[in-house]
Amino acid sequence: MTNKWISFIKFALVGVLNTLIDFVVYALLTTIGVNYILAQWISYSAGILNSYVMNRKWTFERKEKSSKREVISFVIVNLITLSLTSFLLTVLYNKWGVALLLSKLLITIVSVGINFIGTKLFVFTTKK
User: Fold this and answer.
1) Rg of the Cα atoms in the chain
2) What pTM did the predictor assign?
């Protein structure tokens, strides 16, 4: 198996863990009455913190110290993803009446695609 496939599989596994963290935190927060958008920001942040650490160390095996560019790129990619998913969550839940956790599941699918592309192209790039 090539290194690209191994990296992709690692990224996917980290993504599953991030999604579980995101979903569990979101479900707990909304269950105790936290506003669904605030819960989205908190739960997504918990997932992306795990994402940064695990993808940097395990998936992309970066040994050097984090650069400012890398951290800023990571934050920007995730702020874009978070903003878009918050908007979509509001549309699905408030405007279209889709159940809250189903809305969260649907937007998670969107966020995975955006995040993979952004992370691969702009964050953990390899220098040529």
Assistant:
1) 15
2) 0.72
Q: Given this model, what pLDDT does residue 127 score?
A: 59
Structure tokens at 31: 């269950």
By residue count, the chain amounts to 128
Single-letter residue type at 99: A
Q: Report whether 55 contacts 119 (CB < 8 A).
A: yes
With CA atoms as reference, report the closest residue to 107 among 7, 36, 34. 36
pLDDT in tens, 63-73: 888 888 988 99
Say if residues 89 and 99 touch (Cβ distance below 8 Å).
no
Grouping H, G, I as helix, E, B as strand and the rest as coil, residue 103 is: helix
98: left (phi over 0), alpha (psi -120 to 50) or beta: beta
Token pair 């997932």: residue:
47
Nearest Cα neighbor of 27 from 52, 50, 47 is: 47
